From TrEMBL:
Official protein name in the record: Uncharacterized protein (DUF362 family)
UniProt keyword terms in alphabetical order: 4Fe-4S, Iron, Iron-sulfur, Metal-binding
Keyword Iron among UniProt keywords: yes
Coiled coil: none
Pfam families: DUF362 (PF04015), Fer4 (PF00037)
Domain annotation 4Fe-4S ferredoxin-type: ranges: 313-339, 341-370
PANTHER family per the UniProt record, alphabetical: PHOTOSYSTEM I IRON-SULFUR CENTER, PHOTOSYSTEM I IRON-SULFUR CENTER-RELATED
Cofactor(s) required for function per UniProt: [4Fe-4S] cluster
InterPro entries (alphabetical): 4Fe4S_Fe-S-bd (IPR017896), 4Fe4S_Fe_S_CS (IPR017900), DUF362 (IPR007160), PSI_iron-sulfur_center (IPR050157)
Domain of life from the UniProt record: Bacteria
Gene Ontology molecular-function annotations: 4 iron, 4 sulfur cluster binding; metal ion binding
Amino acid sequence: MERVSLLQCESYGTGLKSQLEKLLAPLGGLGSFFRPGDRVLLKPNLIGPRSVESAATTHPALILAMAELVKDCGGRVGVGDSPGIGSAESVIKRLGMEAALKRLGAAIVEFNTPVALAGFGRELPFERRYKNLFMARELDDFDQLINLAKLKSHGQMGVTLATKNLFGCVVGTNKGRWHFNAGKDLDGFARLLLEIALTARPGLHIVDGIIGMDGNGPSNGRPRQLNILAAGGNPLALDRVIVELLQKRPEQFPLFAAARALGLPGLELAEIAIAGAGPETLRVEDFQIPAFHRTHIFVNETFSRIASGLLKQRMLLDEKACVNCRKCEELCPARAISYAGRIRIDDSQCIQCCCCQEMCPVGALRVSEPFTVKLLRKLKIM
């Protein structure tokens, strides 16, 4: 039986450290995940140099509280990630926690050195498909990894929670390549995420949903007070419980379909022991996810092909908001974006990876929602 701990928490204020201790108590406490003297790497969501108020990153107060707790338990702490834009250090500076980490003796770790997943020497319960996928060698400098994810909507995968956050273990310049390789195959990209998660293998996952994000996530959505802290040892079980809190059906999300096809545990609520706050006290109303489409919900293959055209999403540019920084052009793995006095998007080349929307510094890009998708959502078919 998988275990997930839930806690209702309304603030990132001075009591956060004790709230985290309360969250982790049903799982054996933080000290049960590593030994004194171990090097412990905290892997937050540092998507880019965004403001604290944007809710795009794991909240700095939570990162610092976890760093203090690791130190209290005798661990030597580091904080690292591979942001989509900039460096871990630049994001940490933007979040205003560089001095506090220095006082704690916490190292800032840049994920710079790519190593093939197979090079980590960790067997998977299924055959690897992505043998040429590279993760950061810096992960191997630590004895334990703790995943500090952010609860957000996501343009491509619907939501980004514990499992998706570990895509940040891939060295920055390689992320775009794998988005391109996966193309429009969301199930293939979901399997890629699972191979990363099972290779990185954190001992503990915590999801920061005190203030989460919905709508045009994962960078430019709407910050929402959700009051959720969640933790567990299995990222899929943790994600499954959170999706239930969001009142979404698991079949809406490619990650769960890929995990089910591989026979991975943690997908059935009946097999998950939930401790702490009752799920009914943390349910979220009307959590908005971007207009990505899942044509495989239609069991008939022929109809699925027809539906693919009817449900086709597009990237839409708000030309008034666009500042012509051309970051989207630079980061597009499919080279579907060009600039000729203004940004142009070639729909025929777009692979719908949502990298441009995710990394736009001013939120000028969003995923369109065709009338057919709006209708199916209203009918609760999607």
